[in-house]
Amino acid sequence: MFEKEVAVLRIGHRLVRDDRTTTHAILVSRAFGSSIMYMTDIDEEIKNTINKVNSSWGGLSEFNLKIIDNWKNLIKDWKDKEEGKIVHLTMYGRQINEAINEIKSIKQKILVIIGAEKVPKEVYSLADYNISIGNQPHSEIAALAIFLDRLFEGQQFDKGFSDGKIEIIPSEKGKTVIRKERK
Ligand code: SAM
After folding, report:
1. Cα 1 to Cα 97: distance, rounded to the nearest angstrom
2. Whose CA is closest to 19, among 37, 43, 40?
């Protein structure tokens, strides 16, 4: 299951929210197994933060952040080129428990759409699947984490990231960290 290629698109960015929410959405996308995240309306500073994370913790070749001007063009391209299926996460959608096996059987790539705020109505019809993680309002970060975890069945945590300078050795107590020298 883990071989499946997943991209994430977050639509919108609330200026009143702090940049930490945006950064956390990207970090979850990276840590939970997606290979690329597309975002609109964010500044280069956030991109620099993620580049630093990839450089320290690995993943320069496994995870990419792309800032795009127009999310509609991305979706249109994705559909025109038949890149894969589009899964939009929304509290109004079909329940994840009922839909997950169908989604797991998709052979193509998956583009997961999350919103930073209310998502335009047309996204509901452009998506192949509108999926809820429970039918209560919560957060795009939680929704994304649960969706990716259900899709990858936890295997994303075994894959590791290449070329990192820091690696954690899991331990019952304390912190065990290896710092590697790059040649
Ligand atoms: N009215 C929104 C909705 O359609 O889910 C809630 C907006 S919430 C501030 C921002 C994003 O969080 C949504 O666009 C959606 O991607 C995600 N989200 C929030 N609650 C969710 C839920 N129960 N299931 C799936 N996604 C959810």
Report:
1. 17
2. 43
Cα-to-centroid distance, 139 and ligand 1 (Å): 6
Rg of the chain, C-alpha, whole Å: 17
Q: What is residue 123's predicted lDDT score, i.e. its pLDDT? A: 97
Structure tokens at 100: 């997950």
Strand ranges (E), 19-155: 36-39, 64-67, 84-95, 109-115, 129-132
pLDDT tens digits, 72-118: 999 999 999 999 999 999 999 999 999 999 999 999 999 999 999 88
CB neighbourhood size of 123 (10 A)? 19
Which atom of ligand 1 sits closest to the CA of residue 133? 24
Domain 6-179 architecture: 3-Layer(aba) Sandwich (3.40)
Mean pLDDT of 17-27: 86
Q: Are strands 6-11 and 36-39 parallel, antiparallel or unpaired?
A: parallel
| Nearest atom within ligand 1 for CA of residue 140 | 12
**Distance from the alpha carbon of residue 35 to the mean position of ligand 1, in angstroms:** 22
pLDDT class of 182 with cuts at 50, 70, 90: low
* Of 87, 96, 92, 98, nearest in space to 136 by CA: 92
- Which atom of ligand 1 is least distant from the CA of 88? 16
